């Protein structure tokens, strides 16, 4: 409405109507921007620390949102990236930025442990100032924050440096160096308060992050109870090996016969069991102390770490299969035995230590694997893991000392113990290739693609099946006249598992083991062995038009708006805009759990033209296409372009975001113009409504 034409009418209204108009205007102005979310509010400060300074950043995160740490490994959501913009010639970083409390959650699809902040984010960076004329420290944060949707955000800090921080503590800088620092344009006198949203993150290995089979919201971290339970089962498995099981009757008999009374024998056995627990818990404490809560988590995607652990597990597996024995030096066991002969509580403690040393060839591989897995979960998980493992190991010694009559019910030592050890060897061998796969994924070498990995596992578990059925014998096996019922059942179980793996070569998702093999599109044939990937495309689509490719589930997709629009006009179909991200957690979940529905997939393949625009695409735009927005944001990358398009057109900065438009870019929905992370039924109804409105 034109003000000059209507000012008399407006001002003739009552005071009440004026107030009403004002509040309505305020409401709609607010509503139009309500979708620009800013779930993290930041503050920053600088503190003195000796001759250095510490930059402190505190973020308050809204309820139910989480922000990813800088230690979130590659292959998961986007990690926090900290850029010190004016570092050169002005200050030096002292170590890496330290973080406050975080939570780590294992994502069984990524196969990595994601680390993130909840509620509050606290980050500190110590610096050494080398330019006495430094006015500010300029820092950029690029981070991802997620709930049901994800936001890629950028926060710029310009922290004023008090002159008192530089008195008599900064080395004299040569005039030439000072001239250089002046040329960097550092004189910024005010701290910027505005949060700049919708900036894309640096994406490492962009093309491969989009191929993950499923990227759900961060899986809940393994609880300490689950870690304890898994470790307890592992301890029980170690108990049934030939290095440990025969020790039970021998040790219990020693306590009951050498003790002056049954009560004392029970007491000594309990002390013995507690000593075993103490030894392994101390080992867990040492690992936690040396490596800290996050060190092994950070190592979990390191190429050399994965390669080294692959080799270690191959060696352990080879030992379990009977090629050789891995033993700690005999002198260690002899010294422990000598101390055990002294008797008393100290002697019992050394008896427990002797057990740990003697049984290392069987328990070492299990303990090593447990420590890596538990330590990568962070916190006191290694301690809890060792508590669970050692409890299973120690419990029989205590129980049989209390009830010695139970010893008669124990199965006799024999070939079955070696069978347990061999089965563990096959499992170690299969697990080893997970670590080799991790290294291959990080380097993107494509040596161990999905088909090769699955084929290796099929071979391993098929060999295990043959072994359990007595068709294969190994060096330390006893002559086998027949197989036991238990061994038969275990063989049938591994046979079923082997048969389950085989369809994976033809593209089956294999959800039971989704944490282990590479994702489906990291393969020689992303659509399965012998699959063309074109099944389900419209009959009138012959080949792929320019700018199109096959996306999730064989859906034809464009990644440039103009290319997709031109094709939609050519075949006269509505457009579905998909604002997404390579590392968008819930985008992948929607694609895998909703788009794959039999009622939805044909619609996406045949009834709309899908245009997926990646807001974290780091490819730089041609110089002539770069620009600065009215808000002062520089549009430099492809991701910047689509982010600006999303915010300016649809007043939101969240992903996933879905919009159905006509060929003129007009929204085809009235009640719900856009949709985000929803269930399949709601998504289907929304699709049908938009398509029905297309003319």
From TrEMBL:
Q: Which InterPro entries does the UniProt entry name for this protein?
A: Cyt_c_assmbl_TM_dom, DsbDN, Thioredoxin-like_sf
User: A Pfam family name for this chain?
Assistant: DsbD_N
User: Which SUPFAM superfamilies does the UniProt record give?
Assistant: Thioredoxin-like
Q: Which Gene3D superfamilies match?
A: Glutaredoxin (3.40.30.10)
Q: Where in the cell is it found?
A: Membrane
Q: Which UniProt keywords apply?
A: Cytochrome c-type biogenesis, Membrane, Transmembrane, Transmembrane helix
Name the Gene Ontology molecular function terms of this record.
protein-disulfide reductase activity
Q: Where is the Cytochrome C biogenesis protein transmembrane domain?
A: 225-437
Q: Where are the transmembrane segments?
A: 224-248, 269-291, 303-324, 345-367, 379-403, 415-433, 453-474, 486-506
| Gene Ontology annotations for the cellular component aspect, listed alphabetically | membrane
Give the GO biological process terms: cell redox homeostasis; cytochrome complex assembly
Topology relative to the membrane, per the entry? Multi-pass membrane protein
All copies of domain Thiol:disulfide interchange protein DsbD N-terminal, residue ranges: 45-158
* PANTHER family per the UniProt record, alphabetical: THIOL:DISULFIDE INTERCHANGE PROTEIN DSBD (PTHR32234)
Q: What is this protein called?
A: Thiol:disulfide interchange protein
Taxonomic classification, please? Bacteria, Pseudomonadati, Bacteroidota, Flavobacteriia, Flavobacteriales
């Amino acid at each position: 409405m034109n003000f000059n034409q209507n000012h008399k009418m407006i001002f003739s209204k009552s005071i009440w109507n004026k107030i009403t108009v004002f509040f309505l205007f305020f409401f709609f102005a607010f509503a139009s921007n309500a979708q620009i979310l800013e779930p993290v509010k930041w503050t920053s400060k600088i503190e003195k620390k000796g001759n250095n300074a510490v930059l402190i950043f505190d973020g308050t995160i809204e309820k139910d949102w989480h922000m990813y740490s800088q230690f979130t490994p590659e292959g998961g959501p986007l990690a926090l990236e900290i850029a010190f913009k004016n570092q050169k010639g002005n200050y030096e970083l002292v170590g890496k930025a330290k973080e406050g409390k975080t939570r780590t959650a294992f994502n069984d699809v990524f196969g990595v442990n994601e680390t993130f902040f909840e509620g509050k984010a606290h980050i500190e960076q110590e610096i050494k100032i080398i330019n006495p004329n430094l006015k500010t420290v300029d820092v950029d944060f690029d981070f991802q924050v997620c709930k049901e949707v994800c936001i890629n955000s950028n926060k710029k800090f310009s922290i004023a440096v008090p002159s008192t921080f530089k008195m008599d503590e900064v080395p004299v800088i040569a005039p030439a160096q000072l001239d250089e620092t002046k040329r960097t344009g550092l004189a910024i006198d005010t701290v910027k308060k505005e949060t700049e949203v919708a900036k894309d993150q640096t994406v490492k290995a962009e093309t491969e992050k989009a191929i993950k089979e499923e990227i759900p919201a961060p899986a809940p971290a393994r609880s300490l109870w689950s870690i304890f339970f898994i470790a307890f089962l592992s301890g029980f498995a170690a108990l049934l090996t030939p290095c440990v099981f025969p020790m039970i009757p021998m040790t219990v008999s020693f306590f009951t016969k050498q003790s002056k009374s049954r009560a004392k024998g029970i007491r000594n056995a309990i002390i013995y069991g507690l000593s075993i627990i103490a030894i392994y818990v101390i080992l867990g404490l040492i690992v936690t102390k040396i490596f800290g809560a996050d060190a092994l988590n950070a190592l979990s995607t390191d190429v050399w770490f994965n390669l080294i652990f692959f080799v270690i597990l191959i060696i352990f597996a080879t030992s379990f299969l009977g090629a050789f024995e891995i033993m700690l030096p005999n002198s260690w066991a002899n010294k422990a035995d000598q101390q055990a002969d002294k008797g008393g509580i100290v002697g019992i403690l050394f008896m427990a230590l002797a057990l740990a040393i003697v049984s290392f060839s069987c328990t070492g591989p299990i303990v090593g694997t447990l420590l890596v897995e538990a330590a990568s979960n962070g916190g006191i998980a290694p301690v809890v893991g060792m508590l669970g493992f050692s409890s299973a190991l120690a419990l029989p010694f205590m129980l049989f000392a209390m009830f010695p009559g139970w010893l008669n019910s124990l199965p006799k030592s024999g070939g079955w113990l070696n069978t347990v050890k061999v089965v563990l060897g096959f499992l170690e061998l299969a697990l080893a290739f997970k670590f080799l796969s991790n290294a291959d994924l990080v380097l993107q070498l494509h040596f161990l693609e999905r088909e090769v990995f699955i084929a290796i596992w099929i071979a391993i578990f098929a060999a295990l099946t043959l072994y359990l059925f007595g068709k294969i014998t190994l060096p330390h096996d006893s002559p086998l006249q027949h197989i036991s019922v238990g061994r038969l059942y275990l063989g049938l179980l591994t046979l079923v598992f082997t048969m389950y793996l085989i369809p994976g070569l033809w593209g089956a998702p294999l959800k039971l083991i989704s944490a282990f093999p590479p994702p489906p599109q990291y393969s020689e044939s992303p659509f399965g062995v012998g699959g063309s990937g074109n099944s389900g495309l419209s009959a009138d689509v012959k080949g792929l038009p320019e700018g199109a490719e096959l996306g999730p589930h064989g859906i034809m997709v464009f990644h440039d708006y103009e290319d997709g629009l031109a094709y939609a006009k050519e075949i006269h179909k509505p457009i579905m805009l998909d604002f997404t991200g390579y590392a968008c957690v819930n985008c992948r979940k929607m694609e895998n759990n909703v788009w794959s529905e039999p009622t939805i997939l044909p619609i996406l393949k045949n009834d709309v033209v899908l245009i997926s625009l990646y807001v974290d695409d780091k490819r730089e735009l041609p110089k002539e296409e770069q620009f600065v927005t009215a808000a002062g944001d520089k549009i430099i990358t492809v991701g910047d372009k689509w982010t600006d398009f999303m915010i300016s057109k649809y007043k939101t900065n969240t992903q996933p975001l879905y919009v159905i438009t006509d060929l003129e870019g007009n929204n085809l929905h009235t009640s719900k113009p856009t949709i985000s992370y929803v269930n399949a039924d709601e998504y289907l109804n929304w699709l049908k409504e938009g398509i029905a409105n297309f003319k």
